[in-house]
Amino acid sequence: MICATEPEETSTLVELARETRVFKPHELVALSEVLVDYHAKEQANGHRSLTYKQDGQAIGFAYFAPASMTDRGWYLYWIAVQPAHQAQGVGTALLARVEAEIRSANGRVLWIETSSLPQYEPTRRFYLSHGYEPASLLADYYADGDDLVVYRKRLEPPRPD
To answer: Which helix (DSSP H) or strand (DSSP E) does residue 135 occupy?
Structure first.
């Protein structure tokens, strides 16, 4: 079941992200701050956070928001799935829900940033397999040898039934 993230899930989602072993400690601190800000004020600014639950337990989440100063552009800032539940459709379901919500909001394009480091190869393959295309690469962005890789996907409006 995918539902809106609740404030009391913040520590659980940070721990879930830590368990993936791809996020750096400062990124986990940032995630905690992002989720606190989301519940305090960013929801009112159009930010969205979704939690995927199985048997009442959070096993995945996604955080996305309109991209400032763009015409209906959106950013997927976070998507993570507990390692024990990866490659079982959880990430696919979350990403599909993100795209559906953005389409419903008349979104035009979804941007996703990730790292070029080897541990992010499954993440990059995931985006490619879901119709995202590489849009740019900023060499040595995060650190020497750690490039920023940007993906994009054009989103069409929802079709009338």
So the answer is: strand 133-143
Q: What is the CATH number of the domain that holds 6?
A: 3.40.630.30
pLDDT for the residue numbered 160 = 65
Q: List beta partners, residue 154.
A: 109
Q: Is residue 160 part of a domain?
A: no
Domain tally for the chain? 1
CB neighbour list of residue 38: distance below 8 Å, 6 or more residues apart: 5, 47, 49, 63
Q: What is the pLDDT of residue 156?
A: 75
The residue range of the domain holding 147 is 2-154
For the chain, the average pLDDT equals 94
pTM to 2 decimal places: 0.92
Q: What is the mean pLDDT of residues 142-158?
A: 91
Task: Report if residue 159 sits inside a domain.
Answer: no
